[in-house]
Amino acid sequence: MENFRAIQPSILLNPYIKQYWFLSVDNVAQVSQRAIPAGSIGLVFNRGDRVYNLSAKNEMLPRSYISGQSTTYTDTCFGSLDLIIIVFQPIGARTVFDTPINELNGQIISIDSLSDSSIIELEDRLMNTTDYQTCIYRIEQFLLKRIYEFEEYNYKRLSAVINSINYGETEISRLAQTACLSYKQFKRIFVEYAGLNPKEFLQINRFAKALHILQTQPSISVNDLAYQCSYYDKSHLIKDFKTFSGYTPTEFLANCDPYSDYMSLFQSFFINTK
Description:
This protein has 274 residues and is of the alpha+beta class. It is built from 9 helices and 11 strands. The strands form 2 sheets. The protein has a 6-stranded antiparallel beta sheet, with helices on one face. α4 (172-178) packs across α5. The protein is globular.
């Protein structure tokens, strides 16, 4: 049995946080799930059984961890789960963690290794709290304090860049102009905040758009999907799908759970195979 709840952050935290996820799964037998790149990172607290990374020789994941940016998919295996996940906006994590986000790329970082007593204290409180609203209150008190202490000068520049990307801008030189930075400065600061270089971020952003259209319009042709998402041709679209999800668009529809409006954001990060 699976129970999923997605909760929006408060207005003050909305520029930094996408959602809070509460996911519980009670299984007798172990099941697998695939995580796909989505251009954001997450802070994960696991109050259930341990999760194994099948893509890393069944390595056991830490109890609580930061999931850094990735440019490929990862398969995990688990039995019973009880997860709380803080899903950050594309550059939101930089306001919380005192390290360039690109240093976390492709990694699962245990919070125990951060030497950050505030996050350890938050973990301890969440592990002993069952009420959703109390958990969110404690998470938001922690986040608000971190964001209040953060210098936002470059964050505001890059927020304007993310908005431009969301409105369809894909030319990196124009994005640099939006940030009022030189091309070289822009690439350096962008990767520090987003964890990905601008080209990688734009590629994943385009894939995420294509994935959403495919999920909500499963009868669309691959050619039309490639055209709508500004791919050069369908072979480039298929290559991105294989890289980021492990499936072609046709294989994705045949093997993955159908789209759900309620779980839409979750399905841009995780896919369940049938």
